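Input (structure):
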């Protein structure tokens, strides 16, 4: 993801009419092979180090993008914030709820430092259309919301183990920690914080090949399905959330579907140009309509409107939102911003309740938002 971030900045001329003009001047990695890629591809890089403290001590650095395993979030994020540098951090923003709270407490003591969390998929045009409709036209009485992020890469039991399959590094949330904020970002932004949750978690592959020819235990959840009860906007409705690393046939599919008594809408990155809507008319057929979407997301780009958006484009739009926030200030209202600290806290509350729900095989209430 660090290389993805570097690439987004390298083609910044893609973005139009935005005051922020970021420049990548320094990188830190614990792996020399990773640093070699940055040195080879970023000729203007003036610092490449294996010590993140070197970045914090550099007065020429204004902001830091931090992409590290979950068990390092608390220490590194706190250090970045305390250094006075703005932070764009990876999800889940702390390995657990307590780590998240300590990061948020640190941020509260540094109100001028912009701190946001990564979440790229809401910057697809289809997701933005859903967001605009929810804020303007509405859906009537909401009947049901479904959201998810599905992978299939772990279907192969012979895939070597990595840190995301080890609880000490990934955390007890398992797949929910790695994928959950992507799924919850838009629902939480739209005010759909659940009252309770019933979770079903699956540990499917118990061990994987290690780096020395043996087998290592996998002690994280592979798949999760959460059934939530939401009371919002005059409606009471179920919200179904899926985070799955073993979803046959799915490469990297993010989706959101909202069904209402007046209108319904759904979008999936499986078909990035296609938005589906259904407007209810008592005198007409109940038919889903498909619309081809253009390339424009939140920030204007040089790409023509007839072309489709990809992950790299959504990622760059997310970075633009963070840079815009840094330039405009912490309290400035943006067209659509990155995931906020409050949204990371709420998503941690939901995932913590999901662990308890699965362990007890019962519905677990959530604290008030």
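Output (sequence):
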């Amino acid at each position: 993801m660090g290389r993805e971030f570097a690439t987004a900045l390298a083609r910044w001329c893609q973005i139009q009419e935005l005051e922020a003009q970021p420049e990548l001047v320094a990188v830190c990695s614990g792996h020399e092979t990773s640093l070699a890629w940055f040195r080879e591809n970023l000729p203007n890089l003036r610092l490449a180090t294996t010590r993140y403290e070197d970045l914090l001590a550099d007065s020429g650095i204004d902001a830091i993008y931090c992409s590290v395993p979950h068990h390092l979030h608390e220490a590194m994020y706190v250090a970045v914030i305390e250094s006075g540098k703005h932070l764009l951090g990876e999800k889940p923003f702390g390995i657990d709820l307590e780590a998240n709270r300590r990061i948020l407490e640190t941020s509260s003591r540094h109100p001028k430092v912009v701190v946001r969390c990564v979440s790229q998929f809401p910057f697809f045009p289809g997701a933005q259309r859903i967001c605009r409709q929810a804020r303007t036209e509405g859906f009537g009485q909401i009947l049901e919301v479904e959201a998810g992020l599905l992978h299939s890469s772990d279907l192969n039991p012979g895939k070597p183990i990595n840190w995301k399959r080890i609880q000490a590094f990934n955390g007890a949330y398992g797949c929910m920690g790695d994928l959950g904020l992507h799924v919850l970002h838009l629902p939480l932004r739209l005010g759909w914080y659940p009252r309770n949750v019933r979770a079903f978690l699956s540990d499917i592959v118990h061990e994987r090949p290690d780096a020395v020819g043996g087998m290592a235990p996998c002690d994280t959840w592979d798949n999760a399905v959460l059934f939530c009860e939401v009371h919002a906007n005059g409606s009471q409705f179920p919200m179904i959330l899926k985070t799955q690393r073993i979803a046959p046939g799915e490469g990297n599919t993010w989706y959101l579907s909202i069904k209402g008594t007046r209108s319904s809408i759904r979008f999936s990155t499986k078909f990035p140009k296609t938005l589906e809507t259904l407007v209810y008319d008592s005198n007409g057929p109940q038919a889903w309509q498909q619309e081809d979407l253009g390339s424009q997301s939140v920030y204007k780009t040089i790409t023509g409107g007839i072309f489709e958006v990809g992950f790299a484009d959504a990622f760059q739009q997310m970075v633009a939102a963070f840079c815009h926030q840094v330039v405009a200030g912490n309290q400035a209202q943006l067209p659509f911003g990155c995931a906020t600290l409050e949204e990371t806290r709420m998503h941690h509350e939901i995932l913590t309740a999901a662990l308890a729900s699965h362990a007890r095989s019962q519905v677990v209430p959530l604290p008030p938002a």
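Notes: The domain at 121-303+340-360 is CATH 3.30.360.10 (Dihydrodipicolinate Reductase; domain 2). The chain has ten helices and 16 strands.
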